[in-house]
Design goal:
By secondary structure, the chain is α/β, with parallel strands linked by helices. The protein contains four helices and five strands. Strand 4, helix 3 and strand 5 form a beta-alpha-beta unit.
Length: 147
């Protein structure tokens, strides 16, 4: 995979102008459960048609699979990963608008709809925007990299 490894500092430098021009930072995490580990991939996405910019940076970590057999654990860990990143971003860019995109849905067939309100309270209570399916596109970007 021809992926460039960047330091956190380099990522912040790359998004600095975008943020200072009022761009929204989108953060999302998705995960893939394997036999012995669960891979979590978080994305920081910047996107603006006006500024003609679309770019993203991602961070991966693998944790023991046995802790994430339950859907709830997996989803809460995804959101926790996103919040951790959103907090770091917000410490570095106090004026930035940050949106956390969560891979849950409200549709009747969604197994995750019972978590939506709780997760919304958690994320918005920390001062971040909150988007769920079908508007949580940053978590789809993460999904491509968790496979």
């Amino acid at each position: 995979e021809g992926e460039n490894k960047l330091t956190t500092q380099q990522v912040y430098e790359s998004i600095n102008d975008y943020v200072h021009q009022g761009g929204i930072i989108y953060v999302g995490t998705d995960s893939m459960l394997r036999n012995d580990y669960c891979k979590f991939v978080s994305v920081i996405a910047i996107h603006s048609n006006e500024m003609k910019i679309a770019n993203y940076f991602f961070k991966k970590k693998s944790l023991p699979a046995n802790q994430y057999q339950a859907l709830q654990n997996k989803i809460f860990e995804e959101v926790d990963c996103s919040i951790e990143i959103a907090r770091e971003l917000s410490n570095n860019f106090p004026k930035a608008k940050i949106e956390v995109h969560v891979d849950v849905g409200k549709s009747n067939r969604s197994k995750t709809k019972m978590y939506v309100e709780m997760l919304k309270g958690w994320v918005t209570g920390l001062g971040f925007g909150f988007k769920i399916k079908p508007h949580s596109w940053a978590s789809y970007v993460a999904d491509w990299h968790s496979k």
